[in-house]
Amino acid sequence: MQFSSRLLEQAVDEFGRLPGVGKKTALRLVLHLLKQPDADVSRFTGSINLLKENIRYCKNCFNIADQDVCEICVSPKRDHETICVVEDTRDVMAIENTNQYQGVYHVLGGLISPMDGVGPSDLKIEALVDRLRNGNIKEVILALSATMEGDTTIFYLSRKLKEFDVQVSTIARGIAFGGELEYVDELTLGRSIATRVPYEVKG
Ligand SMILES: [Zn+2]
Where is each Toprim domain found (predicted)? Predict the structure, then answer.
């Protein structure tokens, strides 16, 4: 791609770094922004700066939040004895959209993946164990993707949770989860949570 301006090229490069955005789309977005009123562009860049500077992670469940503790964790309407363990915030959003789940969450921040150098200590696993140690938790639902990383993480977690007197369940594993979760229809996802099954450690 030949650019008539260095500034234009720089902006296109930055947009092109976003997931799912190729060079052509990046150029289209940048040219679109150039045509917008200054106030609109300021609002756009301002919202990104504000997000980055002020966003917090709930100190309880590690979901993205505006406060120290997220709205789900402080809600008296939620069932605080049931924890649904997910990979990231997108999964929380997808499950919330089903309106089928009344418990609370725990966001791991990824999955165990030796190939990518992600081990258990890189995830919020100890924090989950602490929650079980300190709280009155009756059930932990492992809602992780049906991938090798998801399986590895579920296996690791189920071993870790063995010492506690909690029901460990998994959701129907046909579901594409984590990243692809947003493409799963709400009915299917909602049903798979409602019909979750106890997890048995094999071997
Ligand atoms: Zn929370």
Answer: 81-176
